[in-house]
Design goal:
Blueprint (H helix, E strand, L loop, with lengths): L6 H19 L6 H21 L6 H23 L5 H9 L2 E6 L4 E2 L3 E11 L8 E7 L11 E6 L3 E2 L11 H6 L3 E7 L4 E6 L3 H18 L4 H12 L7 H10 L10 H13 L5 E5 L6 H13 L4 E5 L15 H9 L3 E4 L3 E4 L2 E4 L27 H11 L9
Parallel strand pairs: 4-7, 9-10, 10-11
Antiparallel strand pairs: 1-3, 1-5, 2-3, 3-4, 5-8, 6-7, 11-12, 12-13
Length: about 400
């Protein structure tokens, strides 16, 4: 890709580097006003130098501009993830033991306690404190009935999450901080009382999620197996230990835990449509980079051989003169399945045969009334603008439809 045509890419690279530097550097929270001032000064210097310097020295304003992008990524990430509890608030939180809180998550059963994420509202004296905390409630029949949205009065001593005890051990304190949680506490069975329960869509969804999670429990699933299955199927990773999440991230397979929700919905819609008799699915803008969706399409086409999928791909099939393909997986799959077609600008795979559009001849005049035209032996349906224009002409809803 020519970076001169897409200058935003040059700005994006230092921005991403700034994000990584702030995320992994674990820096203290920086002054917001100071950072904004520095960025504005650098941008001003860049603009002045750009107007004053000759072409040979244009790298200097470019440097200030790219450095501004780096600082912007660094600052936004630092602002989002770094500790933001000042000493006054921390003193108030650690000194007070009685709190008015709201439960913000479904309870998670531990060996001797029930873990909940809670939102602090007020101290017993009515002093407002707005912080998210983790509470471990002594396990009993009442604690197991806690639900999202419950309002509680609790007696607990809140403390900073402890740092790792050993070098290179998992840093649970940093993990919680990046979720906006800085304090944890333990609540005895006699140390809390439910005072209200508010209905919300989130509460209803959480209850439904908890119901299905219990069904998994009844099958004998436990431990890490239970945590993974609820994360994949129910979209709830609260039961996963932080160390297990870190293991998935280190292995580069965290995306497996995101298969739930919309992903499953997409797969269901694809299957539901392609299993209908003589179904024809046009796909525009998909590069065949997701193996889950690829397998769904191919398996549906194998089962229902009367169905067809036409993938409209943007640009040429080959990257360069070496013959390297832009979307090799799409071409490979279409050469194996006759009812999967891949259309690029200058080439296509139709009926498991790869051909150039220049060799296409409508000898039987089958496309005479189909508005199917080639421009310079190219078919540009992979360009979404060209495809929508074609559809508009097809239904007679286009200014040039009568020409």
């Amino acid at each position: 890709m020519n970076s001169e045509r897409y200058p935003i890419l040059k700005m994006l690279i230092p921005y991403i580097l700034g994000v990584f530097a702030a995320y992994y550097g674990n820096f203290p929270r920086l002054n917001c006003f100071l950072f904004i001032s520095i960025i504005l000064i650098l941008l001003t210097i860049s603009a002045i130098l750009f107007a004053k310097l000759s072409y040979k020295l244009q790298w200097l304003p470019a440097f200030f501009l790219l450095f501004s992008s780096f600082l912007l990524g660094f600052f936004l990430t630092n602002f989002h993830f770094s500790p933001k509890v000042d000493t006054t608030i921390e003193h108030k939180i650690t000194e007070n033991h009685f709190w008015d809180i709201s439960v913000m998550s479904a309870p998670i059963m531990k060996e001797r306690s029930v873990k909940i994420t809670a939102q602090l509202h007020n101290t017993l004296k009515g002093e407002p404190v707005w912080e998210k905390v983790i509470l471990y409630v002594r396990k009993d029949s009442d604690a197991l009935k806690l639900r999202h949205g419950d309002r509680l009065l609790v007696n607990t001593r809140l403390e900073r999450a402890p740092p790792p005890q050993n070098p290179f051990a998992f840093d649970n304190r940093l993990f919680l901080q990046r979720r906006g949680i800085y304090f944890t506490g333990f609540v005895e069975a006699s140390g809390w009382r439910k005072i209200d329960s508010a209905f919300s869509v989130r509460r209803a969804a959480t209850q439904l999620q908890s119901f299905f999670a219990k069904q998994f429990r009844t099958t004998g699933l436990d431990g890490e197996e239970y945590a993974v299955i609820t994360a994949i199927l129910l979209g709830s990773d609260d039961t996963m230990p932080p160390t297990l999440k870190a293991s998935y991230a280190t292995a580069g397979v965290s995306h497996i835990l995101c298969v739930s929700g919309m992903h499953v919905g997409i797969i269901f819609m694809i299957l539901d449509f392609l299993l209908k008799p003589h179904a024809v699915l046009f796909v525009c803008g998909y590069s065949f980079g997701d193996e889950h969706i690829n397998d769904t399409i191919i398996n549906a086409l194998k089962v229902n051989q009367s169905a067809n999928v036409v993938a409209l791909m943007f640009g040429k099939m080959k990257k360069d003169v070496t013959g390297k393909l832009v979307c090799p997986e799409a071409v490979k799959r279409s050469l194996e399945r006759p009812n999967l077609s891949v259309w690029h600008d200058e080439e296509a795979v139709i009926g498991a045969q790869r051909r150039e559009w220049s060799k296409f001849k409508d000898d039987k005049n089958e496309f005479a009334n189909f508005n199917f035209t080639k421009v310079d032996d190219r078919v540009t349906f992979g360009d979404f603008s060209a495809f929508t224009t074609f559809l508009s002409e097809l239904i007679g809803d286009h200014p040039d439809a009568d020409k």
